[in-house]
Each structure stands twice: as structure tokens, then as C-alpha cells.
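Q: Hi! First time asking for a complex rather than a single chain. Here are the components, and I think there are two in total. Is that enough to go on?
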Amino acid sequence: MSSDLDRALDEAVLAAKSALTRCTTVDDWEAAATAHLGRKSAINGLLRQIATLPTDQRGPFGKRANESSRTLTAEFDARKADLLANSLAAVRDFDPSTPGVALRRGHEHPVLAIRREVEDVFVSMGFRVQDGPEVETEAYNFEALNIPSHHPARDFQDTFWVDDPAGRRLVMRTHTSPMQVRAMRQFGAPLRVIVPGRVYRNETADATHESAFHQVEGLVVDRGISVAHLKGVMAAVLGRLFGGEVAVRLRPHYFPFVEPGFELDFQCRFCAGAGCAVCKGTGWIELLGCGLVHAHVLKAGGVDPEAFTGFAFGLGLDRLTMMRHGVEDIRHFHGGDLRFFEQF
Amino acid sequence: MKLSLGWLREFVDLGGRSAEEIAQVLTMRTALIEGIEWRGRGIEGVVVGKVLAKAKHPNADRLNVCTVGIGAETFEIVCGAPNVDAGQTVFVAQVGAVLPGDFRIKRSKIRGVESNGMICSSKELGLGEDHDGILVLEDELASGTALSDVPGVVDAIFEIDNKSITHRPDLWCHEGFARELAAIYGIEFRPATTATEPRPGDAGVRVVLEADDLCGKYHALMLRGSLGGPAPALVRRRLEACGLRSISLGVDLTNYVMLEIGQPTHLFDARHVGGGTIRVRRSTAGERLRTLDDVDRELPADTCVIADATRALAIGGIMGGVESGTRADTTEAILEAAWFEPVRLRRTSTGLGLRTDALARFEKHLDPGLAERGMRRFVALLARFAPAISAAPTYTVAGSRAQGVLRLQVRPERVRSRLGVATSVESMIDPLQRLGFRVTVQGDQLAIDVPTWRATRDVLGEDDVVEEVGRMIGYDTIAPVLPHVVCAPVTLEPSLVAWRAASATLRERFGFAEVLSHATADDQQWARAGMSETAPAVRLKNPLQQNAARLRRSLAPALLEFVDRNIRTVEHVRMFECGRVFVPELGDGEIPAQPLALCAVVADRVTRKGEGGLLLRQLKGMLEDLARVWTATLRFEAGIGVDARGFAHPSRCARIVDERGEFGFIAQVRPDVADRFGWRGEVAIFEIDVDRAVESVSRASTYVPLARFPDVKVDLSFITDFELDFARIEREWRAASTLLADVELVDEYVAPPIPAGKRSLTMRLRFRAVDKTLTDAEVGVEIEKLKTWLAAQGAQLRA
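A: Yes, that's all I need. Here is the structure of the assembled complex.
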């Protein structure tokens, strides 16, 4: 009995080894492995019989059969690794210069992308981000900002007026600045807030003008806020936005809602201040209007101008975006042409 | 506004400072200089000469042969200018001279006559556009004088950014900028000199000030002499350099005064002032006047009219009348120097749609005292430029408007804390005094008297003085400092957070492009999207185009338009916009409601057979995924959303609702609407009120601990109609079987062979027990319950 089993085991091992030698491909190997090591293989049958043997035969045969099976398995595994490894070098079937299979990619609006970058920098510095109404009252858009109806400054802001059946005096906001007063009324002082959003001017569109564009308003109200703080915060923010140190300068300018008022220029990045076509030879690029918040505006916001001071700024995003990407026509931003958006 | 550097030098000694440096300093301390335009540069070998004789050219009718004297020498020059004449003083480009544009003068023969140079026109010298004749100079110039030594020829013209001096009535002239430069550089300022004569009294003209709320001060002065001839060359050169056209001696001198010291004045021909009386009055209803620009204008109510006894002569502060102005034969004129009320004046200007240089100055609120100074400056200029004209020894004055002294108390500590710089009291006082402020130290405060030219509207409080000090010490000397702040977490507005999450999800997960459309909806766009004409909308009074006066109340029409713009070239369009829409019937009473809406559209150029309705289901899947990102719950209800009424497929649509009602829709675009656009494939779209959607945001976690025993998965397929909705099936099943852990839709199939109005649903069910591994038999019992319920609902089970 025992010798029959032993012979059967020897034959099975021999057959398995011989089959393994004949394998030249992974497919051959799969077939051989199934036939000689699989559930229905001769060896597997012998292993199952061990349990049925008389106790005295079980030990020696069992040991031998298990050992043979382990050895065979190891040989099969080694052979498979060889076959897999050898199969790789055979045929070239990949061109690294062919573009990969693309998944559908989305596109961020380039102006909104910059807007979000700006938001992130200010949030990292502890600013709130607020949104505000685009149809605004004349009172918030002008009067509360120290721009009464007869004021010459209104000439610079061609305004869309709303034809309101209820007779309310409403405008499409001409700037994000009305939110200065709204934010102060809502949150009081001290306050750090930015207001990104779309603003409107009654201007016929051409390559460099649009009737709608994007601004980010900023407002800091606290005790002892100074021009030095305005410069410090703006330099820090621009450093983050543009990378590296950014030289800025304040030029006196007039905005009715700040006193003193400035325009902030940054040194041209294209020529490092030497003067080029981008900066029109001046070495500086006009970026935003800013200043210390006018006492009238603080009062309109319910903040005591003796106790608190503040600075405010209004940054236009569209021109910045055009400069960054070299966009030649501002109308693309509201144009809905996918050939434009697919580039971002 | 344009400023001549040569003219500035009359009021301040700028030494050898370059135009570029001066422009830079003004830009940083006073107002933006937008550019420098050079005149008379790039010219060599041009000198003053005298035309001694003129003779006809022997071979050409239109040419003359002129004998020109330069110093002791004489030259023959052929000249074609019609205005050349013997006795004139002219610029001569000698042989070898170089004119702008590198134009070199050579000796030449013109029709057989040798010409030794050229008599120059303004244009040839780059001094103006005039090319009709040669430039005739003032006779007192010595022949041989180099061009660069003739006053007012070589000059740098600064272009001032008008926006940066809106608040500074004193800066609309040369004197004002000269004062700034003197203060900045700490050098002497020489104000314009004025005549001490005339005195107030009876001047032979009566002034009746009937509207003293429109005109606060009015001076009238009689002038005698020929005012209609040309002004001296220097006056003309300076006016032209500053962008004004030379008209006549009288008019040019009024403009000269305006550019010098900022006071507009006006001249009337005395013959046209009937009755020797000037009435300053309100316009009468329907009153008209033909103004100097030869336009017949109806005068708005409350226009300040300068009139004689019977009719209007001029619009005060804005423009004269064409009839009453000086002419070539004027020998007697009335000079007006007045102060007009700026707010009324702006209204009149707006009403007329007319802006002038005079208005630009009056509207800034000039010092009323400047009017008299303007008159006296005019008289002083007569002595310099037109000694033949005499001014009467007395003038008439009416009105009492005056600018009082404004005293401000300023705390140096406040100046320092506002600027953020430790600056000494002395360094504050010095530049203020140079700017004309009178400063007295009173303990720890400064008592500051604001000069009348700054006190009308510009410097009214302590903070305005802070600005003066700041710009004089130089903002570039202030070191940047970061503020110390209270450390507290910031709250981000939920709708902005939701916008960002939506943008990121739609772009990064589903490949949408983020677009923006205009806030105005054009009527055609609305019509194409089937938006009812009567849908209430916020309307603009002054739209850019009459057919785009309505503000959008939905983003969908614009996005459908954008689909149309792209669908012929793009296989699959995926776009979304997030933006405000305007709902007039809602709002807080102060302003209309302006919720933030999110609209996304998907469009296929071609829809494959058997895939009808698939796009809508895909879009719904994306919206549901977005809701999961928001952690919001969206409820869909059968029905057409309000804003989708114009284009929604009658059954492939849903309203998005909460307990307050509808706040969005999702829909496939109806085939007939798609066909109207010329689209071949399907288009699906959703729009949702973002604020409402994120009201349901929940921070509660939905985590379930991992099951300890394995699930049993079973797929069930059955055919049912659309009345038996998915949500109900799931609800009923879950109620029927407590072991049912999860229901997942594997497939919904609606095309043939499934009959119309029916669908085949394949659902994957997972059964699970918390305390043991389920046996096949146990699961079988559960499935039977579900199948029985389905059969009772009329569903047909598939193998």
C-alpha cells in the first residue's frame, strides 16, 4: 500500500517537473500549475488521502508528500517569476512621448482664480471674507462714502441707475467700497475684512474696458492704524501674491472716502524698475487705490473716528489677470468661449 | 491738464533740476504726472531772422524770394508761405540746420533760384499743428537769437492726471503747482503779481446781482483798445503748449490768467451789453442761448444767466454767448471776473451736457477772493503784453461771498500716529508754512490757519493736515509695519464657502469650465430661452443697449447662449456659473433680493441612440455629489421649476425644494427649444439658490462602524412605470426588511424593448445582521418579502 502511494507521489512529482520544464510562456505555466498543483491535481489527491491512512503510515508518507508539494510550489513560483520577467523585454509597446489618456479636466475662470488667491492670502492674515449686494443704494454707494450728489468724483464713475418702480434710488455698485460701511455697521471695530466682488460701470466695452469687472475691497479698522500699517500689509500681501520681495510706493491721489488717499504702485516685475513696455517706461505699475478711512466714512459705519482709525484699499482683478496671462482682450472674461477657458 | 515747465519757472526758481526729476517729485508729493511732452527739442541751427524784403519768384506764382537778415548777414530764401511779408520776425533754419524728425536743411535751387535755408512754420519746428503759414514772432526779438533762447519755445509740457487733483481747486493752474514745488524743494515762491489799480467804484457799467445764490461775487471792468487782434507770440505759444487754441488778444489773455492762477474770466463786447447793465439772474422757462461753440441751447432751470437788460449774454461760469463776445473790431469790452456756486453750476453743466475749462475750475469750489485777483492779474498782463489796451481806473463789484479764515487745531501726536512715523513738530510746521498755512504752536497743539485757496473744500479738518504733512515729508520715508491685532478666528461667509466648494467639485471632479456672464439679460436671449416677457426683473434706467436693460433673474438663459456659442465645435460642453441674480419681488425693502445662484449645463453635440435622458441623469448625479460635498440634503420633486418653464422637458425635469418651497430646478432642454437653437444632441441644466442649499448643511457624521459579519449581496431586476418612484421603493423596502442594510441603483434602462412609459431597474441589495453571518435561507425570506411587495405594486420581476 505504502509503496503504491510512494510510487504515485514520485510519478506525480516527475510529471509536474517535466510539465514545468516545457513551459515557455506565462500561459503555459498557468495551465501546468492548475494541472499539477491545483485542486484536482494528483498531488493534491495524495495529500487528501493522508488523513485516511493508518496511523503508522500517516507520519512518514505525510511528511514526504508535504515536503514534495512545498518544493514543487517553490519551483513553480520561481519559474513564474522568471517567465514574467523575461516576457517584459520582448516587445516594445509603449511610447513615452505619446500623451497619456486624459481624464476630463476642468477650468477655473482666470479672474476668479486670482480672486481666490487673494482671498487665501488675506484669510491667512486673519481677514474676514464678505460678499455684498451688486444692486446697491445710492446712499451706500456714494453718500456714505463722502461722495454727495454734486461731487465731481461722481464723474469718474459712470453709473448704471436702476429704474425702480418704488422710486428707491438704486445703482449697480460702481465699486466694492459700499461694503466698508455695511461691514462696519454689521461687525463694528476692530475689524479686518475683504470684500471681493463684481462691480459695474456704464462704459462701452472694448479690448481694455468692460462694463463689469472685479475688485477686492479691503478694510482694517483698529486703534492706531497708520499709513505705515497700510504699507506693511500691502507689501506682505503682494509678496505672497507675486512671490519674493515686492517694492511698493504710495502716490498721493484723491478718493473722497479716504484721507489721505493714495495710489499704490508696485515695481514692474518685467524690467525690475528699469522701464519697459509693460510699465510704459516708468518702472512702476499702478495696482490699487487706498488710504486711511475718512472720518466721515467711519462715522457712517458707526465707528468713533477718535478711538479708531483704519485703512482701506480697492484692488482691481481684471487687469492683474490680463497682465499675468497676457490676455489681449478683457471681453474674453465674460465671453463664454471655451477656446479661452480651456487654456486655464 | 497741461503745465508748461517754462511757465512754472516764472513763479519758482527751479535751477538746473530736470523735467524728469520735477515730474517724479510732483508725482510722489502732489499729483500724478502722466507724461512729459517736449517741444523745440532736437532742433539745431535755427535762429531768429528778419524778413527785410519780399519779391515775387520769377518762375513761380506762389513762391516769394525773401531777403532775410540774421545779424549783419543777409540771405536769399525761397518761401511758399502765403503769410510771409517784409518786416516780419521769423525763425530761420539756416543751411546745415536740423529740424525734428532729423530733417536737415541744405542749400538748394527752387525753380532756378538759390535758397539758403528755410523760414519755418510751427509744424516744421514741432511747436504746433499750424502749417498754413510761417510762424511770425514778436518784433522785439533780436535777429540772430538762437531758438532755444526765445522764451516759451523750448519747453517741457507735463500732462497732469486730472483725477488726482479733483479735490484741489488751487492746482488747476501754474501758480498752484509752482507753490507746491517751492514747498517741496524749500525754495522761494514768487506769486503772480497783480495791478493795484483799478479801485472799486462806478465803472460805467451797472451790475445787478439778482441771483446771489448762484453767483456770489461779480466784478466788471471796462477795457478800451483793440482786443480783437492777435496776442503776442509768447502768449500764443504758451496757450498752444497747454492745449488751448489762440483766438484773439482779449480771449487769449483771459485764458492766460486762467492757466496762470486758476481764475476763469470772460470778455463781453461793450456794444452788445444793452443799457450798460449786466444782470446776473436765473434762467427763465424755455430760455435759449446760442453759445460760443455755435450751438443753440435751452437753458435748464436755475442756470445762472449773465444778461443785459433784455436778453441772455452768457451762461455764467460755463460759456459765453456767440453774439456778445469780442470780435476783430472790438474796441471796448467788459471784463467779467466772478465766483459761481459750484453745486448749481455742476447741475447746469449736467443739464446742458456741456463741460468747459472754466467749469472744471469753478466746480472745484474756488476761493471767491480769487475773482478780484484774476481781474487784477489781467490788468497786470495788459501792461506786459498789450500796453495799448487801457483798463478803467474803477470797476464795479457786486456780491459779498468771501472765504473766511479757517482755523484748525491739530495735535502733532495725531499726525504721527496716523502716518506711523516719528516726525518732529518743526518738520511739520516748515512745509505747512511754505504751502501758505499759518501755524502757531499752542502748548502741545498747533493752531493752523488754512489759506483761503485750500479752505473751500479741501483742507477742512485735522486729518487733511495729516495728508499735507505726509506728502511733504514723503510717503516713501514711512517704513512699512505690520499691525498688531487681536487673534481671533475668522468666520467665512457660508455662501462663499459653498461657491468655492462647488467650483472645485464641478471643475476637478466633473471637468466643468467656470464661466461668467453679464448681469444684464438681453431680450433676445430671454426670448430664446423661453423666459416669459412678463417675468418681473430689475431694470436699468440707462442701459448700454436698450434691449439689455433687464438684470438677470436666472443664469440659465446666458448659459444656454454659451452652449450655443460652443456646441458646434466642442463634443461635450460642460460649463457652470456662480453669480448673483436679481429678484425684484423679494428683498428687504432697501434693495432687491440678490441671491447667489449656481447654474451648470451639460450638452452633447450628438446624443447616441438608446442614451436619451442619460445626460440628465448624469447631471443629477453630479449635483447630488456636490450636495454631499456641501453636506447638504437636496429634495427633488416632480414638476417644472419656475425659471425653467421656458425650456424644460415636461417630464424630464424636477424642482428642488425645501419646506419653504422651490429654490432650484434640474431639467433636460425640450427638443423643440433645442431645435430652435439648431442643436442636435441633448442638453441638461440645473440652477440652484446656493444660500438656500447650504441652509441644510449638517456637520453630523454619517459614519457607521465596520460590520463584523459579511454582507450578502443580491441583485434584483424588475420593470415598473414611473409612478412607482425610486424613493418610495427604497422607503418601503427598508420598512419591510430590517436586515436590508443598503440599496444601490445599478442600472435604469428606458429604451426599447422596454415599453414606453416603463423602465427596467436593477438594484443591488445588501443584507446584514449585527450579530451573525446570515444564511441563504434567512436572506431568501427577506427577498421574498420585497418581491411580494413589488408584485403588489404591479412591477414585473425579471430573471
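A: The domain at 199-398 of chain B is CATH 3.50.40.10 (Phenylalanyl-tRNA Synthetase; Chain B, domain 3). Let me know if you'd like any chain examined more closely.
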